[in-house]
Write a structure and sequence with these properties.
alpha+beta, five-stranded mixed sheet
């Protein structure tokens, strides 16, 4: 009979996996280098735009008609949005390039630090926060802090139009993993579009209604993948959403 035995087949499969793994790693490195380069290259023309905006604002605002001032304000807003987008792209690129510094720490302390950076858009106290006890974990402290900041900012943003906004944070253990979650009663989304949530520049709501660059959740997924975890979300339109991420228990 022709062909090799089981050992030959296993050897070929292992070789195919190694080749595809190398190709994937090379593609990821090229994508990260491209993102980093583009982000830096975009800063120079943006500096020129901001410079001329400042000159126009300082020297000619008084002589511009009302419509001209409106156009100038629009340019300023667009330049600021571009600057924010570049910053987020750089952060996204760095999160995939920097080495992981793994330590054991209390997730409650990390969460408290992240929570203090989140500024609700509504009046003080307009959000009801329900914060459960969180376990100790092993991971990169600064990167996981960014995960919490992004998820909390997301929850605050999409509950801003609720009269009685509620955001719940907690953790449960399942199948050797710690599953953390951020649940809100905000605008939610249609689950048929859930696959787009964690992609770069993917948005389920218009930028005019909810600000953002479409990079935050992509960064969350990248950081959690590097920790060996998973990310997903569940929601219903106008009934809120819950975002999950897992970390290995041990």
């Amino acid at each position: 009979t022709g062909g090799g035995g089981p050992a030959d087949l296993c050897g070929k499969l292992e070789e195919m996996v190694e080749v595809r793994t190398r190709d994937l790693e090379a593609a990821n490195k090229e994508l990260e280098a491209f993102t980093y380069s583009v982000s830096h290259d975009l800063r120079a023309p943006l500096r020129h735009i901001n410079g001329y905006i400042s000159l126009l604002t300082d020297r000619f605002t008084a002589s511009l008609p009302e419509k001209g001032r409106h156009y100038l304000d629009t340019i300023v807003d667009s330049a600021n949005q571009m600057g924010l987008l570049i910053d987020n792209l750089l952060h996204f690129s760095r999160s995939g390039r920097q080495a992981l510094h793994l330590t054991r720490f209390d997730m409650n302390a990390l969460f408290d630090e992240a929570f203090t950076t989140v500024q609700p858009e509504g009046p003080a106290g307009s959000i009801q926060w329900i914060i459960g006890r969180l376990p100790e974990v092993s991971g990169d402290y600064s990167l996981l802090k960014q995960v919490w900041i992004n998820l909390l900012d997301n929850a605050v943003k999409f509950t801003k139009n609720k009269k009685e906004a509620k955001i719940k944070i907690g953790c449960r253990e399942e199948d050797g993993e710690l599953a953390f979650f951020v649940r809100d009663n905000g605008i939610g989304f249609d689950m048929q579009y859930a696959g787009k949530l964690f992609g770069v520049f993917q948005r389920l709501h218009s930028a005019s209604a909810f600000e953002g660059t479409g990079i935050g959740l992509a960064n969350v997924r990248r950081i959690i993948l590097r920790h060996g975890g998973r990310t997903w979300a569940e929601a219903e339109p106008d009934k809120g959403a819950v975002f999950y991420f897992t970390l290995p228990k041990s």
